[in-house]
Amino acid sequence: MSDEDRKLFIDEGWKAQVQREKEEAARKLAEGGDADAAPEAAAAQAPGSPEDLEGEEGELPEASFSAFLAGFVPQALYALGLIPQEGQQQVFVDLGQAKYIIDMLEMLQEKTQGNLTEQESQELTQSVSELNRVFALRAQQVEEMQLKQAGIDPNNLKGGPQ
């Protein structure tokens, strides 16, 4: 994939925003609430996340459906710019790559219907739903950023009283 296919999404306040969202998600989880208020935190805590698979140092996790999902979810989060490249403050967003991974998971969901345990099915459904939700939010952010870079105020494009 060429650098031209990747979009550079620079959001000066993303670190502060991510920190606020993580704190809000942690607060809601502590209160017994829903983590969906923070996409990054919710996605990081989704079933199949690498944290679910940690074992002893140097030990590979047991081959499982959760481990299989754990290979795809972080890739999608990276493509959505939710996992920054180590040591970088800029976030690269590749909506095409993110959509491809989500489409692959949706295809997997369709092809395995009736062949997964209930827990595996729930993990896959939750992962696909969360990734689709975050994808839609990120696509909107990228579109608004592109309009602003073109000198267009996105708020003036929305219909309504003027």
Structure annotation, total helices? 6
Query: What structural class results from the helix and strand content?
Result: mainly alpha
Helical proportion?
55-70%
Number of domains: 1
Q: Main beta sheet, described?
A: 2 strands, antiparallel
Description:
This protein is mainly alpha-helical and 162 residues long. The protein has one domain (3-152). It has 6 helices and 2 strands. It has a two-stranded antiparallel sheet with strand order 1-2. Helix 3 runs parallel beside helix 5 and helix 4 (95-111) packs antiparallel against helix 5 (118-149). The longest helix is centred in the last third of the chain and has 32 residues, at 118-149. The protein starts with 6 loop residues before the first strand and ends in a 5-residue tail after the last helix.
Brief overview:
The chain has 162 residues and is mainly alpha-helical.
Protein topology:
Elements: E1 7-9, H1 14-30, H2 39-44, H3 65-79, E2 91-93, H4 95-111, H5 118-149, H6 154-157
Antiparallel strand pairs: 1-2
Helix pairs in contact: 3-4, 3-5, 4-5
List the main descriptive attributes of the protein structure presented here.
single chain; mainly alpha; two-stranded antiparallel sheet
